[in-house]
Amino acid sequence: MISATLLGQSLLSGIFSGCFYAMLGLGMTLSWRYLKVINLAHFAFVLIAAYLTYQLVGKSGFHPLLVALLLIPLFFAFGVGQQALIDYYKVNEFASVTVTFGFAIISEAALQWFWSADYLKLESHYLRGSTQIGTLFLPLGEVMMALIAIAMCGGVWAALRYTWLGKALRAGLDNPQIAASFGVPNRQLSYLVAGTSGASAAVGGIFVALLFTLAPSQIFAWLGVVFAAALLGGLGSPLGVLAAGLLLGISEALTMAVIAPAWAPVVPFTLLMVILLIWPERV
Amino acid sequence: MSDQSNTTASLSRRNALQGGLALAAASALPAIAQGTGPIRIGSTLALTGPLAQTGILHKIVGEIFLGQLNQAGGLLGRKVEWVLLDDQSKPEVTRTLYERLLTVDKVDLLIGPYATGSILSAMGVAQRYNKILVHHTFGIPSLAKYDMHFPAWPIGAFPEKTVTNRVVDMLGGKVKTVAVVTSKFPSVHFLALGARPVFKERGIDEVLFLEFEFGAKDFGPIAARVKDANPDLLFMGSIGLEGNQLLEALEKLNWTPKNHFYTYPTPGPLALSPLGKDALSFTAYEDLPPLNAAPGAGEFGKLFTEAAKANNIAYPYVETQTGASYSAWQVLTHAVKETKSLDDKKMSDYLKKNGAPTIIGKVRFDGPNNYGDDLMRIKQVQDQRWVLVYPDEFKTPGAKLIIK
Q: Is B312 helix (H, G, I), strand (E, B) or coil?
């Protein structure tokens, strides 16, 4: 008989995983929908940001908040730069998979060159420990990550829904020529989306460094499940990717707790297939 | 037929052209009988991909060994070269690259890759070309059917029984319950599955058995189940970082295992993490007395530590992986030296009959599937360093086995 504590703790674990998938999936879903770029380099950006966090926090002693202030604009610029290159070389949606995959592979080699293939763990006192509520434990790092992921998804959703920029972006997506005739700066908006995607990768990378042990080969560790979250959530939908991330994370966690951990990897793709079968217009 | 004859033929042409040089070379006749130019030893390693953290250790060891070997004159009077390719931690890539090593690079000898899956791939290629294959850390002896494979990893023919029995002997009846949690990575899965009946036979109650996929990232629910089961011993079939990942998840639940054993942990992260305190594992070698009293072991340990630090390796000490790696090179070169030949069959016959001395100890190949004695010992993390704790005759001076 499964205990309520085990069930509750696993549910919490699933919520944290789901928020993490959403944090990584946000940039991916935005660039896929609004830029027509299936950006596998997003995962490379995440890991590069994680290694830079390791270096700056773990080796140089900077506070993670200060590192965030440095990395978020830096990766915003990386995102813009990547989009400028994609525009310049007129890379289409399908070719973007190959191009950005290539960038990710090169990044893996570069990370290994600079930091070695060995595992690196950021041993820091920031966000360590757990707080207890009843019989359940809430790890501070995961709680902070989940709150920021929710804030990011909610913030981007609100910006798309309620601001002129968001409306312009959606108008540009529907019909770029007509939108441009109304003064919508499509190119600048695409750079804004790419920069936002890059900035979200920086935030994801900071939490990867704080919560996980680093290895260059981890670049695609979350690729499958983040892809599933982006597709399930509906491309370009920040709240959708959050909801899908939570669905996947909780399903995986409960599968591990109730059935067996070995079945957990099957869950995201089974869900994806089932939902696409019964609701094909979702994507 | 190896490329040895081709090398000899090209030597004859060169000699004809260079005339008098042959006279000067006469003093090296035995070597010339084997060919000239460097002896080329081919292998792959997991230099990228999920096993690269350990692959890089094997690379460092190979470079150290060949540096020492060439400084001492090489083999059969010839320098030795290592043709090393990156198999990306993928057994299917390994298979292709070993084919390439033999057919394109035309290496004289092979040495094994890392890890079990890739070694099995290389073994298939070696078998097709009748090449001897000495390898370092193959984990499933029952799968190694090739007649000319030679494991330098001395786990015996039935490690799933012998290793677990040694662990239970070491526990001395203090442990009543066990949770077996295992990755589905083949070599560790095999050990964990084999351990279960041993625990049962020895009267230790299994309160939890869990399997998870290699590459899993979320250990939260697994940790919750381990905590819920509250075993006296956590026996983890783990490779690489999996042990650390579970311990980190357990820490978040404010729970620490009383006793914990890991099959193939990457040595650095577990030893250096505060969570790795008192962790147990098995080992063929550590750069500690009395094991490092073997001839050449001290010098190797010193060189490895220097090289590992230069390569930013967090745990810069020779341990079981690197010890087995060095031993594999010792086995291969011992066979060449003793047979004065690069003939695979001759070397194979010699090794089966005589075994080879290594820093790990005398390795024999005369048992089932060319496996000899189980030379594995048990180590424990104490003060962020692996030390030997069992059996008593191998115990590191000053170390004391901690079982709660």
A: coil
Total residue count of chain B as it appears in this document: 404
Compute the nearest-CA separation of A144 from chain B (Å).
Answer: 14
Residue with tokens 């080329």: B40
Distance in angstroms (rounded) separating the CA atoms of residues B223 and B242:
12
| Closest residue of chain B to A117, computed from CA coordinates | B53
Domains of chain B in start order, with CATH, are: 37-155+293-373 (3.40.50.2300), 171-283+378-394 (3.40.50.2300)
CA dihedral B170, B175, B179, B184 (to 10 degrees): 10
- Residue the block writes with tokens 């060169």: B14
Q: Name the region of A48 (left: φ>0; alpha: ψ -120 to 50; beta: rest).
A: alpha
- ipTM field: 0.87
User: What band does B49 get if pLDDT is binned at 50, 70 and 90?
Assistant: confident
CB contact under 8 A, A13 and B221: yes
Q: Is B129 exposed, middle or buried (0-12, 13-18, 19+ CB in 10 A)?
A: middle
Chosen from A24, A210, A256, A259 to mutate, greatest number of chain B CBs within 10 A: A256
A130 — contact with chain B (CB < 8 Å)? Answer: yes
Which residue of B lies nearest to A218 if distances are taken between CA atoms? B50
Residue B224 to residue A9, Cβ atoms within 8 A = yes
Q: Residue A268: its pLDDT value, please?
A: 82
Question: Between the CA of residue A229 and those of A152, A212, A234, A267, B213, what are the distances in Å?
Answer: 16, 20, 8, 12, 20
pLDDT digits (tens, 9 = 90+) for B81-130: 999 999 999 999 999 999 999 999 999 999 999 999 999 999 999 999 99
Q: Tell me: pLDDT of B66 over 60.
A: yes
* Domain layout of chain A by residue ranges: 27-222
Segment B51-68 mean pLDDT: 95
Closest partner residue to B216 (CB to CB) among A121, A217, A261 is A261
What is the chain A residue with the closest CA to B223?
Answer: A10
Provide, as residue numbers in chain B, all residues whose Cβ is less than 8 Å from the Cβ of A215.
50, 52-53, 241
Max distance between CA atoms of chain A, in angstroms, equals 65
Q: Which residues pair with B84 in a beta bridge?
A: B43
Cβ–Cβ under 8 Å, residues B331 and B363:
yes
Report phi then psi at B94, rounded to 5. Answer: -55, -45
Please write the tens of the pLDDT for every residue from B20-31: 444 444 444 444
Find the CB nearest B184 among A118, A257, A262.
A262
Which helix (H) or strand (E) covers residue A193, if one does?
A: helix A186-211
Predicted confidence (pLDDT) at residue B44 exceeds the cutoff of 50: yes
Residues 6+ positions from B213 with CB-CB distance below 8 Å: A261, A262, A264, A265, B183, B184
